[in-house]
C-alpha cells in the first residue's frame, strides 16, 4: 500500500473517535450524526449526517453506517418513510419541489450506499433507487444556470454532475440512463464554462456521439481571465472546488460500474487544466495552501483543495498537483494532531459539518489513488515550480495582482463585490512549518494598508476613481485613492512589491479635525495551536521583527505595539494621534521585509 493511502487511512482511523462521539442512536432502526441542526432537513442536518455516514461505511463501522444511511434515505421527499427531526423532508423531486444543494448530499448518500451495498436489505436498495432517480429527474426538468458576476454557478453545477454520475454508476441500465448521461455532460461543460467554449468544436466523446463542447455550452461561469466569484468575491477555495466535484463524479462512474464501464465521458474534467494553469498555480504556496487575496468565509488552513490536487494528479497525471497534494496531506495530519479526539481542526466554524466535509475530501482522495495509482510518477520540486511561476501576474477581471520571489509571495486585491482593499504576504522557505501571515480584513480594508478608528462614527473606505496596477518586470506597483470614514479622510497610497516583501507609503488629508486611532499598516499574524501560539516579537524604534522571518520596518514616527489575540484578529495597534483638518501630510512609509 502506498504512503499516500497509509497516511489517509491513518488520519481517518484517528477521526473515527470523533465520529463515534458524534453518533446519536434514535431507535432500533435509525440514528443520526449530530450537528448544528441535528437530524434536520437542511444543510446543517442532512449534509453532516450523509458525509459522516459515508465515512463510517468506508471505515467498516457497519451499525453506525446502516442506521444513519436508513435515516438519510427514509427522510427524503421521494421515500417519506419518516420525517426528519424537524418534521420536514429533504431533497429535490421536481422543478416545483426542489432544495438547494440536495444533489450534493444525495451524492454522499450514494457513496455510503455503495460502500455497504452487499449488506443492505433489498427494500433499502429500492428506496435508494427512488431517492437518486428523483434527484436526477429533477435535473432533467430544470434549466442549467450560468452567470459569473458575483455569484457563479460553477460550484452548484459541479455538484449536479455528482449526483447524475453516482446514479449512473449504481444503476447503469436504467431506462433513463442515457438522458441522465446527456444531462451530466451538459452540467459538466457548464461548470467551468468559459466564453471560448462557445466556439469550441471539440467532439467530447467520439466513441459515443458527435456532441461538441459548443453544443452543450449555455453561457460563462468564468470570467475571461479564468477567475470566478462566489458570495460576491474571489477566493481560491471556490475557484478550485469544481475540480474536486468533477473528479468525484469521474470517480463514481469508475468505482460504481466496476469492470463494465458503460458510461464514461471526457466532459467530466472540462477546463480543469486551464483553470489550474491560468489561475490556481499562480496563487499556490509551497505548503499546498492557495492564497486568498480577499480572505475566506470559513475556517482557515483547511487545505481543502487536497481532492482537487488528487483529481489532477491521479486523473490528469499532473506532477505539480502530486507535489502539492502531498504537502496538503502533511499539513492536514499536523493540524489533526492539535486535537485530542481525532477531529481535523480546533474550533471549526460549523462544527461537525466541517469535520464531515474534511473527512469526505480525504476519503475521496484515498479512493482516487486506489483507482489511479501514482507510484510511477515523480512530483514536481518547488524550485522548478517557482521558476515557472515567478514574477508578477495581474488578474484583470478581479483587480488582483500577485508576485512570487524565492523569498516571498505577495498580492493585493481591489474587490468590487465586497468593496474591500486587502493585501497578503507570506514567507517562502523550505519546510513551510509556519504560515505566519493570513488574509485579514477589519471593516473593509485589511492586511498591509489597515484602517483608521475615529472617536465617533464607524471606519469605512471607498475607492475614488480607478486604481492603477502596473507590472514592472517581476514586480508590481499599485496606486489608489481611498475616501475613508464617511469621506472625512482622503488617503492616496502606493504599494510596491520587492524581492523581499512589500513597501507601502501614503499621503493623508483630513477634511475635518479629529483624533484617530491609527491602524495603518495592519498585519494579521497567525497565533493558534497549529501555526504556533508563541512567536517572538521584538519592537525597536522603526523596526518590528517577528520570529526572525518577517520584519516590519517603518519610519520612527509610527509608534507601534503588538497584541496577539485569535487567529483572525491578531492585530498591530497604534497610539491615538491628532490629525489637522486640511493639511496634507505624508503619514507613513512602511517596509514589510521577509528575512
UniProtKB/TrEMBL annotation:
Residues 1-16 form the signal peptide. Keywords: Signal. The keyword Signal applies. It comes from the Bacteria. This is Uncharacterized protein.
Amino acid at each position: 500500500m502506498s504512503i499516500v493511502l497509509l497516511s489517509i487511512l491513518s488520519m481517518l482511523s484517528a477521526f473515527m473517535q470523533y465520529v463515534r462521539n458524534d453518533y446519536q442512536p434514535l431507535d432500533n432502526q435509525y440514528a443520526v450524526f449530530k450537528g448544528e441542526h441535528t437530524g434536520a432537513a437542511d444543510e446543517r442536518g442532512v449534509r453532516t449526517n450523509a458525509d459522516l455516514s459515508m465515512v463510517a461505511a468506508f471505515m467498516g463501522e457497519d451499525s453506525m453506517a446502516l442506521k444513519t444511511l436508513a435515516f438519510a434515505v427514509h427522510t427524503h421527499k421521494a421515500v417519506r418513510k419518516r420525517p426528519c427531526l424537524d418534521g420536514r423532508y429533504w431533497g429535490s423531486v421536481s422543478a416545483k419541489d426542489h432544495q438547494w444543494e440536495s444533489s450534493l448530499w444525495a451524492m454522499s448518500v450514494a457513496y455510503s450506499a455503495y460502500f455497504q451495498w452487499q449488506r443492505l436489505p433489498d427494500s433499502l436498495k429500492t428506496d435508494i433507487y427512488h431517492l437518486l432517480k428523483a434527484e436526477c429527474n429533477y435535473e432533467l426538468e430544470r434549466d442549467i444556470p450560468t452567470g459569473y458576476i458575483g455569484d457563479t454557478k460553477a460550484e452548484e453545477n459541479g455538484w449536479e454532475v455528482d449526483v447524475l454520475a453516482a446514479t449512473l454508476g449504481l444503476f447503469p441500465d436504467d431506462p433513463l440512463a442515457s438522458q441522465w448521461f446527456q444531462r451530466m455532460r451538459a452540467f459538466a461543460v457548464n461548470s467551468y464554462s468559459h466564453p471560448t467554449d462557445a466556439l469550441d468544436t471539440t467532439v467530447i466523446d467520439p466513441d459515443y456521439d458527435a456532441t461538441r463542447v459548443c453544443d452543450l455550452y449555455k453561457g460563462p461561469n468564468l470570467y475571461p481571465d479564468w477567475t470566478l466569484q462566489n458570495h460576491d468575491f474571489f477566493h481560491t477555495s471556490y475557484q478550485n472546488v469544481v475540480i474536486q466535484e468533477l473528479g468525484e463524479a469521474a470517480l463514481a462512474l469508475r468505482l460504481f460500474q466496476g469492470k463494465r464501464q458503460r458510461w464514461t465521458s471526457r466532459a467530466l474534467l472540462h477546463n480543469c487544466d486551464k483553470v489550474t494553469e491560468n489561475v490556481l498555480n499562480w496563487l499556490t504556496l509551497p505548503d499546498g495552501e492557495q492564497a486568498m487575496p480577499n480572505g475566506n468565509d470559513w475556517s482557515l488552513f483547511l487545505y481543502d483543495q487536497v481532492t482537487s490536487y488528487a483529481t489532477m494528479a491521479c486523473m490528469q497525471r499532473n506532477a505539480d498537483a502530486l507535489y502539492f497534494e502531498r504537502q496538503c496531506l502533511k499539513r492536514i495530519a499536523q493540524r489533526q494532531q492539535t486535537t485530542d479526539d481525532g477531529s481535523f481542526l480546533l474550533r471549526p466554524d460549523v462544527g461537525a459539518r466541517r469535520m464531515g466535509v474534511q473527512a469526505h475530501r480525504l476519503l475521496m482522495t484515498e479512493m482516487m489513488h486506489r483507482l489511479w495509482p501514482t507510484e510511477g510518477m515523480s512530483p514536481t520540486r518547488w524550485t522548478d515550480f517557482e521558476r515557472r511561476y515567478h514574477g508578477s501576474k495581474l488578474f484583470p477581471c478581479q483587480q488582483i495582482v500577485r508576485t512570487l520571489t524565492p523569498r516571498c509571495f505577495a498580492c493585493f486585491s481591489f474587490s468590487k463585490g465586497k468593496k474591500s482593499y486587502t493585501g497578503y504576504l507570506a514567507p517562502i522557505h523550505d519546510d513551510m512549518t509556519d504560515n505566519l501571515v493570513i488574509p485579514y480584513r477589519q471593516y473593509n480594508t485589511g492586511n498591509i494598508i489597515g484602517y483608521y478608528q475615529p472617536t465617533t462614527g464607524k471606519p469605512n473606505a471607498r475607492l475614488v476613481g480607478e486604481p492603477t496596477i502596473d507590472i514592472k518586470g517581476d514586480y508590481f506597483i499599485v496606486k489608489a485613492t481611498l475616501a475613508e470614514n464617511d469621506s472625512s479622510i482622503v488617503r492616496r497610497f502606493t504599494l510596491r512589491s520587492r524581492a523581499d516583501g512589500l513597501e507601502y507609503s501614503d499621503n493623508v488629508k483630513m477634511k475635518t479635525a479629529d483624533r484617530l486611532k491609527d491602524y495603518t499598516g495592519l498585519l494579521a499574524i497567525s497565533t493558534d495551536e497549529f501555526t504556533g501560539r508563541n512567536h517572538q516579537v521584538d519592537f525597536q524604534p522603526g523596526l518590528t521583527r517577528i520570529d526572525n522571518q518577517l520584519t516590519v520596518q517603518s519610519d520612527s514616527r509610527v509608534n507601534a505595539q503588538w497584541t496577539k489575540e485569535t487567529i483572525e484578529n491578531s492585530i498591530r495597534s497604534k497610539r491615538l494621534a491628532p490629525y489637522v483638518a486640511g493639511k496634507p501630510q505624508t503619514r507613513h512609509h512602511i517596509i514589510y521585509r521577509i528575512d
